[in-house]
Specification:
Chain lengths: 121, 110
């Protein structure tokens, strides 16, 4: 079964740091681009960052550029999101998501269960 | 940067009725780059439609997607009780590279 399991969320003070992880199983992890998507309480979905299968290409939403870093360890089938200089507006559920196809479709077909990040003093 | 605008914000219908949800892009989008998702409270989003009109695995055929260029539509032919949820469109853009979601349409029971 294809599965993504996110972890690492929690309560952090403004200006602090947190590192999220997303463990993948059931597919050849290194073949697929991966992304992080977040959802603030009561709000819609917001794309955060994406990374290619090899890890050689990364891109970020303007709202997190320079503060967040996406990475992956293909030997451990794990995706990461290092979040620095956290702000109250970063409070959200963070989902990891798998790109549907190695080439072609850019949709996200498999999502993790979400991990909650709360930035508050 | 492409902006996606969904309409209406809220759609109130009864089971058995037809639902038509719109997603408009601020500039022309390749159909390969457009997808639709359903999200229920407390759950992760679920892929319904990708490449603008292809149903994802396991999605009932009452869900269909259409459109091209800047205007895309998700149609639910006959609403079932489990279809009442929030729906989002998603677009991938190559310049600059990245994704954008629409703000969502809440489909509620009338």
């Amino acid at each position: 079964e294809v599965q993504l399991l996110g972890s690492g969320g929690g309560l952090v003070q403004p200006g602090g740091s947190l590192k999220l992880s997303c463990a993948a199983s059931g597919f050849t992890f290194s073949n697929y681009g991966m992304s992080w998507v977040r959802q603030a309480p009561g709000k819609g979905l917001e794309w955060v960052s994406s990374i290619s299968g090899t890890g050689g290409t990364t891109y970020y939403a303007d709202s997190v550029k320079g503060r967040f870093t996406i990475s992956r360890d293909n030997s451990k089938n794990t995706l990461y999101l290092q979040m620095n200089i956290l702000r109250a507006e970063d409070t959200a559920i963070y989902y990891c998501a798998k790109r549907k196809a190695m080439a072609g479709s850019w949709a996200f077909d498999i999502w993790g269960q979400g991990t909650v990040v709360t930035v508050s003093s | 940067e492409i902006v996606l605008t969904q309409s209406p914000g809220t759609l109130s219908l009864s089971p058995g009725e037809r639902a038509t949800l719109s997603c408009r892009a601020s500039q022309s989008v390749s159909s390969t780059y457009l997808a639709w998702y359903q999200q229920k409270p407390g759950q992760a989003p679920r892929l319904l439609i990708y490449d603008a009109s292809t149903r994802a695995t396991g999605i009932p055929d009452r869900f269909s997607g259409s459109g091209s260029g800047t205007d895309f539509t998700l149609t639910i032919s006959r609403l079932e009780p489990e279809d009442f949820a929030v729906y989002y469109c998603l677009q991938y853009g190559s310049s600059p590279p990245g994704y954008a979601f629409g703000q969502g349409t809440k489909l509620e029971i009338k």
